[in-house]
Amino acid sequence: MTGDVRTIEWTGxxxxxxxxxxxxxxxxxxxxxxxxxxxxxxxxxxxxxAPALGVAGAFGVAIAVRQAAREGWDGARxxxxxxxxxxxxxxxVNLAAGVDRVLPFxxxxxxxxxxxxxxxxxxxxxxxxxxxxxxxxxxxxQLGADRPLRVLTHCNAGALATAGWGTxxxxxxxxHGRGRVEIVYADETRPLLQGARLTAWELDQAxxxxxxxxxxxxxxxxxxxxxxxxxxxxxxxAANGDTANKIGSVGVALACAAAGIPLVVAAPWSTxxxxxxxxxxxxxxxxxxxxxxxxxxxxxxxxxVGAFNxxxxxxxxxxxxALVTETGVLEVSAGAxxxxxxxxxxxxxxx
Length: 351
What we know:
Layout: E1 8-10, E2 15-18, E3 29-32, H1 35-43, H2 50-71, H3 75-86, H4 93-102, H5 110-143, E4 149-153, H6 168-177, E5 181-187, H7 194-205, E6 210-213, H8 218-223, E7 229-232, E8 236-238, E9 243-246, H9 249-259, E10 263-266, E11 272-273, H10 290-293, E12 294-295, E13 298-299, E14 312-315, E15 322-325, E16 328-330, H11 338-350
Parallel strand pairs: 4-5, 4-7, 5-6, 7-10, 8-11, 10-15
Antiparallel strand pairs: 1-2, 2-3, 8-9, 9-14, 12-13, 15-16
Helix pairs in contact: 2-3, 2-4, 2-5, 5-6
């Protein structure tokens, strides 16, 4: 695999999704042509990852418009269907952003919506390549190492989580292309094993050396001096740089701070939510209890025991060494916040 795996594409009448629930056992696709099926696919993680969800949300509006015409919906029912797509998962801001971006095109018809959704997809692929290059440049400049690097990553932020190439894994791919990766520690990522099932699959397909480790092993790996840098993705980034990512990320961040190695967050600028001042305002999705109380359909916890299953945690900005987007690198822990960067860009634009 070259990193150009097609996670999501419009076929002309439906949205074709690479079904990530089937990996790594087999590669299969789901063709989605109605809102109920799309919302279910998003919630079941057939499609997942903040950038990919943004693209899915945009095409989801096209699906809703087509279904409304096919089934004779009135405007209120169409609006309700679009809202269901927008709210299918609450933490990743890209889903709502994708929907919101194409909404002004609904009055022009489904073709206009599809064209704008395709633009979002194309922009994501280009942006991911830029993220990879900026991130690799920054890491090599900061570490100054003249040897291949040992990289740790958490969850999946590769081609499968985007429209193509990847964010955090895009940085790893770029480093690998330059001959600068010795090994990647891929955290298994509880409870659905996106690291073991998806990240390891992507790295293996790309010929990048990797090992899978339990989430609980990650801080020890870092503190033992076995990793040079940790690179993770993000589902929402607050204006002050607080970062929501898959549960377990904050443990990685704390270990990086203790060991004195960089924690790099790689994400498109669309993942930055300037309307959210800090991490306390980021909604945290809680997943079904069965994901942690059962395994392979069999219950693994006592029958009377419940579950607490947050899908994400929030890493404070002070622990984020660098935020890499398609526009460059912000050294967040040193005070370069997204809100400040946006303000500078606005001033520059007015000039």
